[in-house]
Design a protein that fits this description.
The protein has five helices and three strands; from the N terminus they run αββαααβα. The chain is mainly α and 167 residues long. It has one domain.
């Protein structure tokens, strides 16, 4: 694993994935009546969406590990593309749950807003990671993975041949 390969986008994506995953354990909805049912967490109030959101959060964290472990950038870029798409899906799924309260819920709790922030962070971090191509600084040469590399050999000028020019 080479932690030097990690860019800001991967760190944002992984942190947001952890944020989304933790938000599923926090209260998302409160009861509308006094003495009503207790606050419901993301795991309790979402039927199948909780598993989908947990998988998206896990893929966001996996992007960090894959980017650090792979030598060539092709695999992390592919995974990054899928994580960006999954992040956009997560934003839509959480926004639907913000607008449409489940039965018996009367208030939105802070875990829901943390989940929305995590979903937006996954999508934004993955998009930032896709845009960051990290070119070499002048005078510092790198290979395709961003590691320092020796400078390329200077081109040697070859004199023109002394052959006669064609008629």
């Amino acid at each position: 694993m080479d932690m030097r390969r990690l860019r800001a986008g991967e760190w944002i994506t992984a942190g947001s994935g952890i944020c989304l995953l933790l938000s599923l354990f926090l209260p998302w909805y409160g009861s509308s009546t006094e003495g009503g049912p207790p606050d419901a967490s993301g795991w309790e109030s979402l039927a199948l969406l909780d598993v989908v959101l947990a998988l998206i959060a896990a893929s966001a964290v996996a992007l960090l590990v894959i980017t650090a472990a792979q030598r060539l950038p092709a695999v992390p870029l592919t995974v990054n593309t899928f994580v960006a798409l999954a992040g956009l899906v997560a934003v839509v799924l959480v926004l639907v749950r913000v607008v449409d309260l489940p039965d018996g819920a009367g208030a939105r709790e802070w875990g829901l807003w943390l989940g929305l922030a995590g979903a937006v962070g996954i999508a934004a971090g993955a998009l930032v990671a896709m845009r960051d191509e990290r070119p070499s600084r002048p005078g510092r040469h790198t290979d395709l993975s961003g590691r320092p590399a020796p400078a390329p050999r200077e081109l040697e000028a070859i004199p023109a041949s002394d052959l006669e020019s064609p008629p």
